Amino acid sequence: MERLGTGGSGGGSGREGGEGVGFRPLYRQVHDTLLRRLAEGVWQPGQILPSEGELARELGVSQGTVRKALDALTADSLLVRRQGRGTFVAEHDDKQSVFRFFKLRSEAGGEAAPESRVLARAEAPASVDERDRLGLVRQARVVRIERLRALDGRVCLIEAIALPASLFPGIAALDLPNTLYSLYANRFGLTIAVARERLRAVALSAREAGHLGAAPGSPALEIDRVAFDLDERPVEWRLSTCLTEHVHYQSILR
Amino acid sequence: MERLGTGGSGGGSGREGGEGVGFRPLYRQVHDTLLRRLAEGVWQPGQILPSEGELARELGVSQGTVRKALDALTADSLLVRRQGRGTFVAEHDDKQSVFRFFKLRSEAGGEAAPESRVLARAEAPASVDERDRLGLVRQARVVRIERLRALDGRVCLIEAIALPASLFPGIAALDLPNTLYSLYANRFGLTIAVARERLRAVALSAREAGHLGAAPGSPALEIDRVAFDLDERPVEWRLSTCLTEHVHYQSILR
DNA sequence: TAGTGGTCTAGACCACTCC
DNA sequence: GAGTGGTCTAGACCACTAA
Question: Which of A112, B75, B195, B232 could pair with B227 in a Cys bridge, judged by C-beta atoms 3.0 to 4.6 Å apart?
Answer without folding.
Answer: B195
